Amino acid sequence: MSETPPGPRTAPSGDRPAVLVLRALGLGDLLAGVPALRAVRRAFPQYETVLAAPGSLAPAVRAAGAADVHFATPENGRQVPSLDHWPGPPPALAIDLHGNGPLSHDVLAALRPGRTLSFARPEAAHPDPPRWRRDEHERQRWCRFLTAYGIPADPAEVRIPPPVVPSPAPGAVVVHPGAESAARRWPADRYAAVAAALRKAGHRVVVSGGPGEEELCAEVAARAGLGPADVLAGTLSFDGLSALVAGAALLVSGDTGPAHLAVAHGTRSVTLFGPVAPALWGPPPGPRHTVLWHPGPPGDPHGSAPDPLLLRIGADEVARGALAALRHGDPAKEVAGHV
């Protein structure tokens, strides 16, 4: 088996000018930003591309292959992090891929870069500076932003290579009931009903989850009639989760990090949306990915209770969507970086 490729360095070398990119968010945000990050690295081959992102995302940053340096930021949720620990001379260019407010712009500007590109304060001399659009998909937004500054970016360039570690459940249907916030967490009994229906149809089903989701996953598995060996919760590294999703027949989940991994690996998926419309955060269009959403007013994706729109999705609806996706089979996955 091949060895895991070396990851990016943890600090700028100082041998070349640096392009510092701020995107200090979660796994799904990182994967949605891959097309933009790759565009930056490609546009400045003579520079060191430095990605400021949480240290916990190091394996994902390595897998994305979109930076020379991973400059670890504090683990402070979705808040704009401090960059006071920047070790080198001012970056030649700073790019704000974090958000559209002044806070993220200001933490970059405080490093006194040669130039700063951001939605918050577009360059005054630019003939047609990009403007923030609330109704724009996340991948499209940042690619449009870069393209406006002469950095061509393709929002379809989402794919990452599968990890070298083997899948712990090759060919299984993966049900992932967890999510960072309760607003995007569909009820456990409904996930269990879907898992039971898939199992009854003859498919192997495993339940996956991250640290702290062991009890949730065990509940889903028990309700679905699955055994302890079918629960993969709290034990998988990023590479293990990535391999699980890459080797799955189908992923069933909410709008969370593993759904973005399914896009990155070209794995069939059924994704449940609630507070945020799939037009803003969903997978690329096409037969490989199924989105389930009942349109309505937008909600709070970080809320403390399941979003009302998410609760409109029934277990029968999800089971039908999953079985239909599985009947399509597993088409050959492209080897290039596009969907």
Main sheet properties: 6 strands, parallel
Strand pairing plus helix content: what structural class?
alpha/beta
The sequence of SSEs as H and E is: EHHEHEEHEHEHEHEHEHEHEHH
Using only CA atoms, what is the Rg? 20 Å
Silhouette: globular
Going across the biggest sheet, name each strand in turn. 8-7-6-9-10-11
Low-confidence stretches: 331-339
Average of the residue pLDDT scores: 93
Task: Assign a percent range to the helix content.
Answer: 25-40%
- Beta-strand percentage range: 5-15%
- How far apart lie the N and C ends? 26 Å
What topology does this entry show?
Layout: E1 18-22, H1 27-32, H2 34-43, E2 48-54, H3 58-64, E3 69-73, E4 93-96, H4 102-109, E5 115-117, H5 138-148, E6 173-176, H6 188-200, E7 205-209, H7 214-224, E8 231-233, H8 238-246, E9 250-254, H9 257-265, E10 269-272, H10 278-281, E11 289-292, H11 308-311, H12 315-327
Parallel strand pairs: 1-2, 1-4, 2-3, 4-5, 6-7, 6-9, 7-8, 9-10, 10-11
Helix pairs in contact: 2-5, 6-7, 6-12, 8-9
What key phrases describe this protein's structure?
single chain; 339 residues; alpha/beta; 6-stranded parallel sheet; 5-stranded parallel sheet; 11 strands; 14% strand; disordered C terminus
Account of the 3D structure:
It contains 12 helices and 11 strands. With 339 residues, it is of the alpha/beta class. α2 runs parallel beside α5 and α8 packs across α9. It starts with 17 loop residues before the first strand and ends in a 12-residue tail after the last helix. 47% of the residues are buried.
Write a brief caption for the model.
This protein is α/β, with parallel strands linked by helices.
